[in-house]
Amino acid sequence: MADIRKKKRKQKSPLDGIIKVLAVLCIIVAVVLAGLLVKEMTGESIPEPETRGDIITTDNISTTDAETSAALSEETTEKETTAEETTQEETTQEETTQEETTGEETSQSMLWAEEDRIIVNPEQENWSLVVVNGTRAIPEGYTPELSSVAGTDVLMDSRVAPYYTAMYNAAKKDGITLTPYSGYRSYDRQKRNYNNLTEEYMYKYNLSREDAAIKAATVILPPGTSEHNLGLAMDICNTYDSFKNQKEYKWLTEHAHEYGFILRYTAEKQPQTGIIPEPWHWRFVGVEYAEQIKNSGLCLEEWLTANGIAY
Ligand SMILES: [Zn+2]
Question: How far is Cα 48 from Cα 40, in angstroms, rounded to an integer?
Answer without folding.
Answer: 14
